[in-house]
Model the fold of this input.
Amino acid sequence: MFSKEAVLFSLKDNWGDFVSGEDISRSLSLSRTAVWKHIQSLKDDGYVIEGVPKRGYRLIKLPDKLLPSEIRYKLKTTLFDKKIYHFDETGSTNKMAKGEAAKGAPEGTLFVAEKQVKGKGRLGREWVSPSGGIWFSMVLRPKISPIDASKITILAGVAVAKAIEVETGLKVQLKWPNDVLIKGRKVAGILTEMSAEADKINFVVVGLGINANLDVNVFPEELQDKVTTLKEALGVEVDRVALLRVILREFEKVYFDLKEGGFEKVLSEWKNLCETLGKHIKISTLEGEIEGEAFDVDQHGGLLLKLPSGEIRMVYSGDVTQFEINEKEIF
Done:
């Protein structure tokens, strides 16, 4: 642990109480001067820290940012406690993650942004990602076949859905292939990209975007009746750092299950959350449009459709229209 982070954690562990510089110095094997410098640096990062002679330092307020130290504090994962890159503003966390993954970034590396100016969803569509949301990407190096890469999207969907329910109590549903919904409106999305050879995956980058503490009116007018935010659904803002920590914990659980061959359980969870199954839908693909009843998802994440002719068709990607609501996928 970095010395500055260790000083912060010492203050957080004693939230609201004074901790003497001498105690911090002794417990962390740092000089008093080093402790003072780290305190000043934390203040520069936006932490409000009160210092009183002969009493020490007291942490009063945290910055409203997804800072690496905040994410790592009591994170309790083995996969995501290493390198975390944080940006006040960036183009796309997925693009940055892919670039670093190609250079050898280890599994579990995270790229987190307060704001994206060139965020993207599936098929290169724009992803509106202003300040107040949770926009991040993770580097994974699963030892699975490229044909199984879509399983990662299923894992991410379950992890996000469970985390939102745990942190907010809101009922969440999933829409095939990569949307997270609250009352039929999109609150989060997943973009999975990979580098692979014929028989092995070099790396997978999973990008997640959650509309957390946003007002719906920040989105283009044509999307405002199709999206929602956690703030709108709850009526209050959520703790973004706490939610991100839970997402990472939940994802690690299902990811380790996948690596150990235990995909059946998470696939069952995904199906129970999926509102696409049992619906009459139309899917727009690169080859054209397919219409039928969505009745199952296979081991590789493909959607099984029963066509009006009775033929069974497997689809692995596409834009879904559900005739009950006649609502096209928005990203």
Summary: The first helix runs from residue 3 to 13. The radius of gyration is 22 Å. The chain has three domains: 3-61, 68-273, 280-328. The first strand starts at residue 48 and ends at 52.
